[in-house]
Amino acid sequence: MLIIDIEGSGVNYQKHSIVSLGALDLDNPGNRFYAECHVWDGAHIDPEGLAVNGFTEAEVTDPNKMTEAELVRNFIGWSQDVKDKTLAGQNVSYDRDMLKAATERAGMNFSFAYRTIDTHTLCWMHMVKAGLNPPIDEEHQRSALNLDAVLNYCGIPDEPEPHNALTGAMSHAEVISRLLNDKKLLPEFEQFDIPWQS
Q1: Mean pLDDT, the chain, integer
Q2: Which of 33, 47, 57, 164 keeps 20 to 30 A from 84, CA to CA?
Q3: Nearest 10 degrees: CA dihedral of 176, 182, 186, 188?
Q4: For residue 52, which phi and psi values (nearest 5 degrees)?
Q5: Does the pTM exceed 0.90?
Q6: How many CB atoms lie within 10 A of CB 99?
Q7: Do 5 and 176 meet the contact criterion of CB atoms below 8 Å apart?
Q8: Domain range holding 82?
Q9: CATH no. for residue 118?
Q10: Residue 60 burial by CB count (10 A; 0-12/13-18/19+): exposed, middle or buried?
């Protein structure tokens, strides 16, 4: 499984750009990828999006960084040796759609499946099977299982801010391992116990 996290200049894959991408191979978690790029010419830059990922406008427009097309080419090259290219992560449809749009802008074929595995769904199912009611965001009348809630349920503190694509991918991989296999995965999270095993 290919665990992925993308930080963007906003959330609309048609008008925003990738600014960083982090990934790891769940079957070989030491096999990791991280890269940053500048936004594509004409991409919109949402200040709220940058507030989440901590990049400045100067950083995401820095011509010394690789282009989005180069980042995607490098990522696809890195992923060639990953046996299971099923994309997984928190709200992974965002990452899939951003990656697909970026590959198309780069004139490349999107070689990843549309089928994905979302940590939100895994956590929701784990809670229900344990007889727990998943939290609801009363204001928006939807699930409140954002990444921090999923991390906390799995015994891990909130993701550090600002968000980093590699830290995000590592967090997603760790919760997937805990939710599916009841096992810790990465040394970065070893100190945090799995709550339902206590």
Answers
A1: 97
A2: 164
A3: 100
A4: -70, -45
A5: yes
A6: 24
A7: no
A8: 2-197
A9: 3.30.420.10
A10: buried
